[in-house]
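Sample entry follows:

:::
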Amino acid sequence: MIAGGRDPPNKSLASTEIFDPARGEWTPTDLLTHARDQHTATVLADGRVLVVGGHEGPTEYEQGIIASTELFDPSVQTWRTTRSMLGRGQALHTASLLPDGRVLVVGGFVDGGMDSIRETSVAQVFDPISETWTAAADCDPYRPFFARRPFGREHLGAGRAFHTVTPLLDGRLLLVGGGLPSMKPLSFEPRSGIWSFAGSPHISRFFHAAVRLSEGRVVVIGGFTGTLWSGDEQLTSSVEVYEPSPSR
């Protein structure tokens, strides 16, 4: 399935299409309730698809970040709205399916006010049974990227964007990168809802790729080093491997 996106020069899309690999064909299906781009789409354990947040044009980017959430039911091929995200919405975030069927949404951009956007530390969890959102970390939609608050047990630190979240074999999730050289990787324990530090990489990065290997380690590949939006960003070809510590 592909849902939403952007049609140049400046228009968000509501169209949805489904690809049949056996026939090699695309078939249009129900339209999204809200046209959007820079959102996420996650397949739930029951086969439904959860679409979260993003940007709705053709307004300027700073004025178009949305909190709306939709569910697609493949049995009837329709979208319907569900409970909106906490806060004013997020775009270019990550969305990860947890072992218990909930979905963890982390970081990205929020409306910063005064026609600006800000990277965010917001992490929140969607429960597909109750169709409700709960905070998984500090929920401050106006938290600036350059904020310096102490890291706590339920705290992501400064806002993160262009990061990765990778599921580990034991059910935890590994958060890497986000735009500041000082950002440390974190692991998220879904049962307790607690964030913990996850080692110190040799290189801090963003816009990278992260892949879990079959034996449980995570390979982090390429991306940019430096500070996001500062002008000192540099592409890197470096590769690092993370070996998870035993869960407690």
